[in-house]
Design goal:
The protein has 162 residues and is of the alpha+beta class. Helix content is 17%, strand content 41%. A six-stranded mixed beta sheet has the order 3-4-7-8-9-10. A three-stranded antiparallel beta sheet has the order 11-12-13, covered by helices on one side. InterPro entries: Nuclease_put_TT1808, Uma2. GO terms for molecular function: endonuclease activity.
Length: 162
């Protein structure tokens, strides 16, 4: 479940989705960064991106208490990348969550689908200035490092560089 702009969204994790998140967790570079699957409190929302990356030396700027759990709140400058893997939630992720993350100031947001990786950059109060669509075989630069990922023909993520 996620709390997004006052709405509770039910989240179901299918096979492709779960496999892709696992690949991302294995492939995203960790030099100077921490890759996590923790809830990312954003404004009044509690979205659960599939993974996100923060600076390894970042400290939380606060906490939010919810359902008996304390969640760390992070400065947008310390959040290097937010990623949602979208199978059945493509429309919500490309629209509602892009607005939410852009408004929060997170510099880069990816939506990974079976057909493409959509990279959102240039956060503004209404979302992001730019969205680039990377198709099968194209290299996607990982924003906080010199590495690249590629969405393969069989919806498999491949790493390039380091």
């Amino acid at each position: 479940m996620e709390l997004v702009e006052g709405e509770i969204w039910r989240v179901a994790i299918g096979s492709w989705h779960g496999d892709t998140v696992g690949q991302l967790l294995a492939l995203l570079p960790r030099a100077g960064a921490r890759v996590t699957t923790a809830t990312l409190p954003t404004g009044e929302s509690l979205p659960d991106p599939d993974c996100w990356v923060r600076r390894v030396d970042a400290d939380p700027i606060g906490t939010v208490g919810t359902v008996g759990t304390r969640l760390s709140v992070w400065d947008a400058a310390d959040v290097l990348l937010v990623v949602d893997v979208a199978d059945e939630t493509v429309i919500q992720d490309l629209n509602v969550k892009a607005r939410l993350y852009g408004r929060a100031g997170y510099p880069v947001y990816w939506v990974v689908t079976q057909e493409a990786i959509y990279e959102h950059t240039g956060p503004i109060p209404t979302g992001y200035r730019t969205r680039v669509e990377y198709l099968h075989g194209e290299r996607v630069p990982v924003p906080y490092t010199s590495a690249e990922l590629t969405l393969g023909d069989a919806s498999v993520l491949l790493a390039h560089g380091s």
